[in-house]
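pls design
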C-alpha cells in the first residue's frame, strides 16, 4: 500500500462485498500498533504459526517491504488472507521542511482535520527524533505554543510508530534515527498506554531496534504516572521551568496539583530505581525565570538529585506574552549554575527558521507564522517562501 494512504485502525474493510461478509468479525488492524507479542497472539488466534510474526516484522521493519505480494516466504493464500486483516498505513505527511541547520520538520495528517508534528534533529553522532503523543495538550503551560490548543485527542501507538517510520523512510541512505525524545506535541504521560506500547514496538530487535537508553520521555510532572518511565527502562526528562512553587504554578498550572516537593520525590525515586540521571528542563523566560536568584534556588532544589539541567531559552511565538532573555543573561544564568556546581547544559536551538524549536509545535497549521519553504520532500510543503531573515542557531546539547 502506498504510504500516502492512511486508514485509521479498525475501519471497515474496503475490499469486495463477498469478502466483507467473511471478514465481518475481523476488523482491519494497523500493523504499526502491534508489538511482536501482540502479532504472535493475534496470528495464533487465527490458527497460524507464531514465527510468521517475526517474518512479517522482518519484512516491514528491516526491509521496509509492506506489499504482501513481495513477502515471498509467506504462502499465497496466507498473503491473501492477511490483506483483509493487517494494514500498513501510516499518517500521511502533509509537509516536510528542512532547516538550514539540517533539522527536518514533518506535519502529519491524523484525520478529522487533526495534525501533529515531529522533528528530526541532527547532531555530531546522532539523529534524534522528537515525536508527538497527542493532538494539542491539556496541561496549559503558559509559555507553550502546543498548550494554547486544548487536547483534541490522544494518539494511538500506531500513529506514534507511524511518525517514526515516515521520518525514517525519508532519511538519506545509511542514516538511522538513533534517539527518540517524547518532546513534541502533547504530554506523553497523559497518554501512557499508547506511548509505552510504541516504545515497546520501536525498541524490539525485530522492529527498529532503538535502545531504551536512547529513548527519553519528557513530562510536565504528572506525578502519579511517572513510575512508568522507570518501569519501562527509558530516560526521564522533567519540565521544571520554575525554581519555586509560586513561579512554577504561574507558568505551569499543573504544579498546583503536583507541587515541586512531590515532583522532586518522584524524580529521586526514578534515579534510585534506575541509577540514571534525570534531565531537568528549564525554560528561560525573560524577567520570570532567568534571574540569578532563580539560578541559586534551582541549584539548591536539585543539588541532591543525580541530574543534569537543560536550559532552554524561550522560543518566541505570537501572542505568548513572554520574551527570550538576552544572550548575556542566559550566559550569566548558566555560569551561576556552573559556579555552584550544577551539571548544566544549554539546549541548542535548532530549526527556528522552520518553527520547529521546542514549544513551537502546534497542530493549528493555519495560525503558523509563514516562514520559509526549503522542503525537498517528495510531498512538498504548503508553506510559502518569504524573505524573513533566518534566526541564528546557538550553542550546545540536545537531550540524551
Ligand atoms: N509535554 C512534555 C513534552 C513536550 S514539551 C513536557 O512538557 O515535558 C517539551 C519541552 O519544551 C518542555 O520542556 C517544555 O518546557 C519546553 N517548551 C515548551 N514551550 C517552549 C517554548 N516556547 N520555548 C522553549 N521551550 C519550550
Ligand atoms: Fe503540554 Fe508540554 Fe506544552 Fe506543557 S510544555 S502545554 S505539558 S506540551
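designed seq:
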Amino acid at each position: 500500500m502506498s504510504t500516502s494512504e492512511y486508514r485509521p485502525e479498525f475501519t471497515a474493510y474496503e475490499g469486495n462485498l463477498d469478502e466483507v461478509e467473511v471478514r465481518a468479525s475481523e476488523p482491519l488492524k494497523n500493523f504499526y500498533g502491534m508489538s511482536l507479542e501482540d502479532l504472535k497472539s493475534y496470528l495464533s488466534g487465527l490458527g497460524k504459526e507464531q514465527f510468521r510474526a517475526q517474518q512479517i516484522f522482518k519484512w516491514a521493519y528491516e526491509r521496509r517491504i509492506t506489499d504482501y505480494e513481495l513477502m515471498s516466504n509467506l504462502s499465497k493464500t496466507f498473503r491473501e488472507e492477511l490483506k483483509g486483516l493487517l494494514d500498513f498505513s501510516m499518517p500521511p505527511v502533509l509537509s516536510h521542511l528542512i532547516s538550514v541547520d539540517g533539522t527536518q520538520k514533518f506535519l502529519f495528517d491524523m484525520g478529522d482535520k487533526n495534525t501533529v508534528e515531529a522533528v528530526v534533529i541532527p547532531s555530531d553522532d546522532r539523529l534524534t527524533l522528537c515525536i508527538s503523543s497527542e493532538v494539542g495538550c491539556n496541561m496549559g503551560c503558559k509559555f507553550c505554543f502546543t498548550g494554547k490548543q486544548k487536547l483534541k485527542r490522544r494518539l494511538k501507538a500506531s500513529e506514534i510508530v507511524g511518525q517514526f517510520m515516515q521520518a525514517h523512510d525519508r532519511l538519506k541512505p545509511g542514516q538511522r534515527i538513533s534517539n527518540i525524545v517524547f518532546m513534541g506535541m502533547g504530554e506523553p504521560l497523559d497518554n501512557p498506554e499508547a506511548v509505552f506500547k510504541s516504545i515497546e514496538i520501536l525498541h524490539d530487535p525485530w522492529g527498529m531496534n532503538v535502545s531504551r537508553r536512547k529513548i527519553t520521555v519528557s513530562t510536565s510532572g504528572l506525578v502519579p504516572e511517572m513510575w512508568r518511565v522507570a518501569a519501562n527502562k527509558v530516560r526521564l526528562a522533567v519540565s521544571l521551568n520554575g525554581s519555586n512553587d509560586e513561579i512554577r504554578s504561574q507558568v505551569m498550572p499543573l504544579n498546583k496539583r503536583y507541587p515541586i516537593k512531590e515532583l522532586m520525590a518522584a524524580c529521586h525515586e526514578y534515579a534510585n530505581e534506575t541509577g540514571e540521571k534525570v534531565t531537568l528542563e528549564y525554560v528561560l523566560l525573560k524577567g520570570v525565570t532567568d534571574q540569578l536568584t532563580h539560578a541559586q534556588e534551582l541549584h539548591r532544589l536539585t543539588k541532591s538529585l543525580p541530574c543534569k539541567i537543560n536550559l532552554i531559552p524561550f522560543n518566541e511565538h505570537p501572542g505568548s506574552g513572554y520574551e527570550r532573555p538576552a544572550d548575556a543573561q542566559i550566559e550569566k544564568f548558566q555560569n551561576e549554575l556552573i559556579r555552584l556546581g550544577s551539571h548544566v547544559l544549554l539546549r541548542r536551538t535548532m530549526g527556528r527558521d522552520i518553527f520547529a524549536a521546542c514549544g513551537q509545535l502546534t497542530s493549528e497549521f493555519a495560525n503558523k507564522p509563514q516562514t520559509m519553504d526549503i522542503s525537498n520532500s517528495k510531498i512538498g510543503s504548503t508553506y510559502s517562501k518569504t524573505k524573513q531573515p533566518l534566526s541564528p542557531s546557538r550553542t550546545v546539547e540536545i537531550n540524551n
